[in-house]
Amino acid sequence: MTNENINKISLECDNVTKSYGVFKKTIAIRNLGIKELGGTCVSLVGPNGAGKSTILKVLSGSIRKYDGKVTVRGSVGYCPEISVNFDFMSAEENLSYFYPHNIERIKYILTRLNLNTGKKPISSFSKGMKRKLDLARSLILGSEIILMDEPFDGLDAESSKELSKIIEDLKIEGKLILITSHDLHKVENVSDKILFMKDGTIFQKLILKHLNLYRIDFTENSDVIRKKLTDLNIKIVGETELSFIIQVDEGLEICKLITKILGDDCKIVGFSRESLESIYMRELCG
């Protein structure tokens, strides 16, 4: 797929809010803003109840009543968290039941996902195989945007690796994949961008390509340090009362950066490499 076609595939949420209840006091997602293009995998990471599944339901059209604006350019395939299959049927029979006029396409997709299991019933499938069947269903009609709710949940290492490879192949084809997870480790390797969620809001967006994160600890003069970082075009992606998390471009010499920041007016007591997990846990628990 050409870059021109990839850029035509997109989804966007503008100030989207979804509330439940008679008086709409239960807010599932609040003032959500997302804008993504084809050829990428974006992961929504957060604890149970953060609003991740609600976002996918809004984007897939399963939820139609909400505040704000959603724009989707491209056909959508939705893989819910709970598999919906006829256990007594085979993989091909399950798909052909819903898509009786797409038999050749079904056979192609099953071959591609290594699900050619003959007459073997779904009841004998592993969880990883069932998740692949859910994905197969979303690909039958050539969906350009794939929404996957907790696709890695409960999978063993081998099944997770196989699913990751499939996602990478879909990205190469120019598809946009949006997945949810409560476990950062399970999606970190396949994601181009991670959106951290809590209480229905996105509190951090990180692009993982060439991501170099460092933590600066200080005792005072945070405004002075902030100004120096701004003057050096260093992006601050997180902060606490006595620390900044900065994103450093690949190739920038860290020693030179520290030298430029240090001075009589800057009381820095620590400078260390920062992990995605530490950012996530600190923001989540803070």
From TrEMBL:
Segments forming domain ABC transporter: 11-224
GO molecular function: ATP binding; ATP hydrolysis activity
InterPro entries: AAA+_ATPase, ABC_transporter-like_ATP-bd, ABC_transporter-like_CS, ABC_Transporter_VariousFunc, P-loop_NTPase
Protein name, UniProt field: SkfA-E family ABC transporter ATPase
Pfam (any one): ABC_tran
Keywords noted in UniProt: ATP-binding, Nucleotide-binding, Transport
Cleaved signal peptide residues: none
CDD domains per UniProt: ABC_DR_subfamily_A
Source species, domain of life: Archaea
Gene3D superfamilies attached to this UniProt entry: P-loop containing nucleotide triphosphate hydrolases (3.40.50.300)
